[in-house]
Amino acid sequence: MTKVTFVEANGTEHDVDARNNRSLMQAAVQNGVPGIDADCGGQCLCATCHVILDEQWYSKLGTPDADEEQMLAPTPERSPTSRLSCQIQVTDELEGIKVILPEFQM
Amino acid sequence: MLDKVQPLRMLDQDPKTIPLDQIDVSQAELYEHDAQWGFFERLRKEDPIHFFDHHEYGRTWAVSRFDDIAYVEKNHEIFSSEPTITIADPPPDIPFQSFIQRDPPEHDSQRAAVQPVVAPMNLAKLEALIRQRVGVILDGLPVGETFNWVDEVSINLTTQMLATLFDFPFEERHKLTYWSDATTGAPDVSGGDFITIEERNKALAECGEYFVRLWHERANGPPGNDLISMLAHSEKTRDMINKPMEYLGNILLLIIGGNDTTRNSLTGGVLALNQFPGEYDKLRKDLSLIPSMVSEIIRWQTPILGMTRRTKQDTELFGKQIKKGDKVVMWYISGNRDEDVIKGDPNKFIIDRESVRHHLSFGFGIHRCMGNRLAEMQIRVAWEEIMKRFRQVEVVGPEVRAPSNIIRGYRELPVQVHPL
User: Between chains, do A37 and B368 touch, taking CB under 8 Å as contact?
Assistant: First the structure.
């Protein structure tokens, strides 16, 4: 288990014990965090699990691959440190990560 | 070369016993009679990537399972959207081009230019206006009389929404619906019977002139929040008028995208709640289920039957050899009833279904429906306002559906409304 904090656009924080070797998206959905829709079920085929990381975590996790970038690009709230949470695996290294949710998923 | 044989008429066949290789799910009248289910059930089980050499459409593959459809969506480098996304080839007399019929990179830049108009933050501004217009329509319904829900509510409402998005002259708004139906409802595009090819060409010429005029009006005026003004003033798109076929193609795409889909989901919801009265009770007891119900309506209805890709190179798809040029049809209508993915009887309408948003009606991947949030918002607001007024919208006669192999739509749904 790894401690993850999801922060809604309105500032509400959700501390979650995330299971390792699953995605951050699954951690959010399984713990009832609002604001992650995950319409495609984690196949990088929509952008409804969009999250924003701080710069440190973003550089630690690496940039999105071409498929992910293609889905992220048209998202209205895209920021330079945006990711799709279905593409991030939970590991011990993520202990204490803060994940910001956009106001809307699209 | 021998002329190809006409396929069997599917309506006369028993889906359980027809030889597999004779199954042709592209026949528009199948959907007019809602008779497709047995054929797709058979294909999902016995031949999920199903070949049919069609006398009119050529070599086609019907993809019927949810996950296989997602795979085709993902692999857009092989399965192209060019030159179009219908089973029928593009009619030579429709020269319009839109980003739904383009691959990257053109697709990406054109879509990026128009996407802001349906971004959720823009929609939030529109919601109050939409709610007010829904209210006016619902308050005007004739209590105690039988009327056609399709005309009085579904078409009326979506037409008003389109007029709002385009800031289209309100008294002429019916033209938008007509142009949309004309584009999708002709025999050479969808196997439809809404309009003849000649009438369609006339309608589209009128549509073209109209929108070119609106562009110039908006370009010469101050920037506004409507779609045309956004296109005319945005740095990325302000030269689009120099490519009129691209401008008009994208306008038509937005009209069609905002018309048939929402319209038929608004009708489908009424039908679904009447066919599943237990779900109607559930809804009356808990109105907070409306957002979840909206997704279930969109899945259950599947207003766009499917989308077609054209294969750019020889490839293999789950054991089948697909040749360059073959058409690959992703039948969302089938994938949305795939029992391996939609758990808990996919044929049932369940308003609080688990993973209710996990459906194919918006497509997946780079071509995923751009107006999905607008559609959900309109349907949600409509149901919130319906439930404030009516104990029941009662279906009192059989629905009439339209023939098409693109759109799963209704022409009539006779109803009576019963106030609270």
Answer: no
Q: Distance of alpha carbon B322 from its chain centroid, rounded?
A: 27
Residue B78, domain member (yes or no): yes
**SS3 (DSSP) at B408:** coil
Residue type (1 letter), B20: L
Tell the residue number behind the tokens 């009209």, with chain if given: B255
- Closest to A54 in 3D by CA, of A106, A14, A5, A16: A5
Contact flag B373-A45 (C-beta cutoff 8 Å): no
Single-letter residue type at B190: S
- Which ipTM score applies to this complex? 0.93
The dihedral through the CA atoms of B375, B379, B384, B388 has a sign that is positive
**CA atoms of B278 and A20, how far apart (whole Å):** 40
**Domain total of chain B:** 1
A69 touches chain B (CB under 8 A): no
From the list B104, B357, B365, the residue facing A37 with the nearest CB is: B357
Contact list, B358 vs chain A (CB under 8 Å) = 38-41
Inter-chain residue contact A43 with B74, CB threshold 8 Å: yes
Q: Which of B368, B370, B372, B376 to mutate to test the interface with A (most CBs of A within 10 A)?
A: B368
Q: Where are the domains of chain A?
A: 2-100
CB–CB of B358 and A43 under 8 A?
no
CATH number at residue B189: 1.10.630.10
A103–B121 C-beta distance less than 8 A: yes
The reply to whether residue A41 touches residue B355, judged by beta carbons under 8 angstroms, is yes
Is A2-100 in CATH node 3.60.150.10?
A: no
B287 falls within a domain: yes
Cβ under 8 Å to A: B residues 342-371: 355, 357-359, 362, 364-366, 368, 370
Structural domain boundaries, residue B139: 44-419
DSSP at B103: -
Cβ atoms of residues B49 and B319 within 8 Å:
yes
In a domain, B17, yes or no: no
Q: Does any domain span residue B9?
A: no
Per-residue pLDDT for chain B (420 aa), expressed as one digit of tens each?
456 778 999 999 999 999 999 999 999 999 999 999 999 999 999 999 999 999 999 999 999 999 999 999 999 999 999 999 999 998 887 778 889 999 999 898 888 878 877 887 778 878 888 899 999 999 999 999 999 999 999 999 999 988 988 999 999 999 999 999 999 888 988 889 999 999 999 999 999 999 999 999 999 999 887 889 888 988 878 888 998 888 888 899 988 888 889 999 999 999 999 999 999 999 999 999 999 999 999 999 999 999 999 999 999 999 999 999 999 999 999 999 999 999 889 999 999 999 999 999 999 999 999 999 999 999 999 999 999 999 999 999 999 999 999 999 999 999 999 999
- Do the chains contact at A76 and B115, CB–CB below 8 Å? yes
Q: Is B70 near chain A, with CB under 8 Å?
A: yes
Alpha helices in B60-153 (DSSP H): 66-74, 106-114, 120-139, 149
- Closest-CA residue of A relative to B299 is A39
